[in-house]
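Dear colleague,

Thank you for sharing your sequence with our group. We've completed the structure prediction you requested, and as agreed, I am returning the results in plain text so they can be pasted directly into your records. Please verify that the sequence below matches your submission; if there's any discrepancy, let me know and we will rerun it promptly.
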Amino acid sequence: MAERPFRTTVTLALTTMLLVASPGAQGQSLCSKPVTPVCATIVPSTDPSAATDTGVARSRCLEDAETFREKLVEYQQCLKGSLDQATKAVRDADRFVACLQRNEADCRLTGPE
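Please find the predicted structure tokens below.
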């Protein structure tokens, strides 16, 4: 039974670290996967009698594809940053738990540097 308060304390401390003390928490934003352009799955009409001009449709699709690629790169960078922060948080938590398990007097979670 004595182990329960210890686990509760560790869980609370780890949750606090992840929500408050993680590096960049103040400016942290969620990573949002960009929306795939419609033209990536629907080929612009090639029928000469169609109401849309295929040249304009291709040009618009190219612009959309370039924007989509740029946003994918931003998404990738955001995910990498989030993964790096999570990796550091896990290392910090490992050190904190190990300190508590060794029954050391002054165990603390490390915060942002």
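Summary note from our side: The chain has a mean pLDDT of 77.

Kind regards,
the structure core
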